[in-house]
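Lecture notes, unit on protein representations.

Consider one protein chain, 140 amino acids long.
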Amino acid sequence: MTSPRVLVLRALGLGDLLAGVPALRALRRGFPGHEIVLAAPAGLAPVAEATGAVDRLLPASAPGRGVPRTLGWTGPPPDVAVDLHGNGPPSHRLLQALRPARLFAFAHPDTPDIEGPAWYRDEHERDRWCRLLDFHGVDA
């Protein structure tokens, strides 16, 4: 039996990963006993490991700030999928396709079946991702 897993999509650059560290650490605290898997560019593996919040990096990237076409996810669906990539809908649908038990994402009119908080364009990313987790019951 595999341990429960949390998949976090943040397939962007170094600065974006660093802005997401408070949210990653909140997920680590909020899901003890879960494997935290970060979908991000392969070159960020040493930085992801240095956060102390990520167990494994799943290589994922796309040109520019795009959403990867697919994720190399194997095994059963994630227990929780977290969209720290953007406000959707492409990133929402990518994670939805994995059939997670729970999906943490921002609300978007093109994905009305996904519940989440409103997206504020001018919000600092650290605050944005922590607010997303707070909405879904993870103390960030």
